[in-house]
Design brief:
This is ApeA N-terminal domain-containing protein. With 341 residues, the chain is of the alpha+beta class. The protein contains 10 helices and 11 strands.
């Protein structure tokens, strides 16, 4: 090759955690991202033909070729997803899919690499790199929606409850790599993602940047609620609120002398003290019910081990989100070119 850059041309598919709930319009679509710094595309499964069969199928470029001997008999039995909601149009005799639960995604790494000898190692490292990408994608999904596609209680293999299947474009050998053991899972489905949200999460995952820590604590609090661990949820909501208040104070005190700012912050270390300081300085507004809904339940959970009710946990999360929308609003995390679409 004259430019001395060799195509990675790697394709594969992987199980996507506990599944992604998306609008049916995402079926068959591909989304741009970066995996391990390389330009890549993520391909969603397609609706069956006829789609009344309910199951989703592999896109044509990822389907098993019956003419090629299988290296592993498990691959043809991998599930790609299922239609989760239907609707009947007025006057129509058949239902049409509204949303689907995607259980498997295809990926294509389309970038070029300048060292031909290093391509084999890149291919070998793909499962680990893909895990990192999947963690980031799940993190962005979980804060931009009410879903959490992660496989919980899994010590390793974030994207995999079975192998990552990989091959090189035009090649005949397909292999499953790095099987991780299964574990008990629970899911938080929520409202189906629309294509714009999927595109945004794919883009943000490709930047290799994690969401702000305070939003990840909100994610963890919501996940704890889904798991029935309301004490953990209230504690995580309190941590998110404390980080948000600290950020608001830092922003407000950035215009004063550093020594003054440090003195004020050092005297106000606890959540209650910092919330009072924020109110006194006018650095932000305290949400209604802050003390009774978040502060006191959080202290009781953290220091006395008290387990609150579901309603208390949900209220604490709502208060934390109200603070985060002041310190690090979600809309500000989305690139302007994507937010305007």
């Amino acid at each position: 090759m004259t430019d001395e850059h060799w195509p990675l041309d790697q394709l594969g598919h992987f199980a996507c955690g506990s599944g992604i709930h998306v609008e049916a319009s995402c079926c068959g679509a591909s989304f741009a991202t970066r995996i391990g710094g390389f330009v890549a595309k993520i391909q969603f499964p397609v609706l069956s033909t006829p789609w009344q069969r309910a199951k989703l199928e592999a896109p044509s470029s990822f389907a098993v070729d019956p003419a090629i001997p299988l290296a592993d008999e498990r691959e043809p039995h991998q599930e790609w997803g299922v239609v989760s909601q239907w609707r009947t149009q007025v006057g129509a005799s058949e239902q049409e899919p509204v949303s689907v639960r995607v259980q498997r995604l295809g990926f294509t790494i389309v970038d070029r690499f300048h060292e031909r000898e290093g391509i084999a190692q890149i291919h070998k490292d793909t499962p680990a790199v893909l895990d990192r990408w999947w963690d980031l994608f799940c993190a962005w999904v979980s804060i931009l929606s009410t879903q959490d596609p992660r496989d919980h209680l899994r010590l390793q293999g974030a994207a995999r409850r079975d192998p990552v299947w990989m091959w090189v474009g035009g090649g005949k050998e397909r292999r499953g790599q790095t099987v991780s053991s299964d574990a008990i899972r629970w899911d938080r489905t929520g409202t189906p993602l629309d294509p714009a949200t999927v595109e945004t999460c794919m883009y943000l995952a490709g930047t290799e940047e994690s969401p702000p820590t305070e939003w990840l604590f909100v994610r963890d609090a919501r996940s704890a609620v889904a798991a029935g661990d309301y004490r953990r949820a209230v504690i995580d909501a309190g941590t998110a609120a404390e980080l948000a208040i600290t950020e608001l104070l830092d922003q407000h005190l950035s215009a004063v002398e550093e020594a003054v700012a440090e003195a004020l912050m050092s005297r106000s270390r606890a959540l209650e003290q910092r919330s009072k300081l924020m109110k006194e300085l006018g650095a932000g507004f305290i949400p209604d019910g802050f003390a009774g809904t978040l502060q006191r339940p959080r202290n009781a959970a953290a220091h006395s081990g008290q387990a609150p009710t579901l309603e208390v946990a949900q209220g604490a999360i709502a208060v934390a989100v109200a603070l985060l929308e002041q310190s690090t609003p979600l809309l500000a995390l989305v690139p302007a070119e994507l937010a305007s679409e």
